[in-house]
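Please decode residue identities from the backbone states below.
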């Protein structure tokens, strides 16, 4: 299986690359600087310079881009560009999503970021990622959007375990909603290999 990872040198992207390589997958890093590629195969591109011909021969394209601060407004146009270049291909798009767009009630009328106690500093990020998910839902491409738990721990252990959930925020028996970057990477590569949730948003936690 041939996969390409945008943002392959980021905190989550690099772990997805590492997990995929450990399973013998053919991985190409898409990076803005060749020196930052951790794989032998790489493309030097930013998201907007990627073209249809660059990605048409992959089985999976992973979007592990991270935009922060004023750059969060890039989530929507970046997603629109990826949808555009994926038209007419059989390439699956798997997106590293956020928890803020997960629903907190069964009728799916309220998202986590809309709650009054949600941190103000993170709301713009969550809102833009939610808009990107809405755009994917309306598209004709084959996509999967994977939201992490509310507490997404970059330094957490790789336990090799996770719980797969749906569109609602879920908790463990102790009331925690957490996962490490390393275990999220396992869930991402499992979905790449299993193709179990096409055109769906799923979530993962411990």
């Amino acid at each position: 299986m041939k996969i390409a990872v945008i943002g392959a040198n980021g905190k989550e992207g690099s772990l997805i690359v590492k997990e995929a390589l450990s399973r013998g997958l053919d991985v190409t890093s898409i990076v803005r600087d060749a020196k930052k590629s951790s794989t032998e195969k790489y493309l030097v591109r930013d998201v907007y310079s990627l073209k249809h011909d660059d990605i048409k021969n992959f089985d999976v394209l992973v979007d592990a881009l991270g935009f922060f601060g004023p750059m969060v407004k890039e989530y929507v146009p970046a997603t629109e560009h990826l949808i555009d270049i994926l038209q007419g291909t059989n390439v699956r798009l798997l997106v590293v999503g956020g928890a803020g767009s997960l629903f907190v009630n069964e009728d799916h009328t309220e998202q986590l970021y809309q709650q009054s106690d949600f941190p103000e500093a993170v709301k713009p990020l969550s809102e833009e990622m939610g808009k990107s998910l809405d755009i994917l839902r309306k598209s004709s491409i084959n996509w999967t959007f994977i939201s992490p738990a509310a507490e997404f721990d970059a330094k957490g252990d790789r336990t090799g375990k996770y719980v797969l959930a749906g569109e609602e925020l879920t908790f463990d028996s102790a009331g925690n909603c957490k996962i490490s970057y390393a275990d999220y990477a396992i869930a991402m590569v499992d979905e790449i290999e299993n193709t179990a949730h096409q055109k769906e948003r799923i979530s993962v936690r411990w």
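Observation: The two ends are 27 Å apart (CA to CA).
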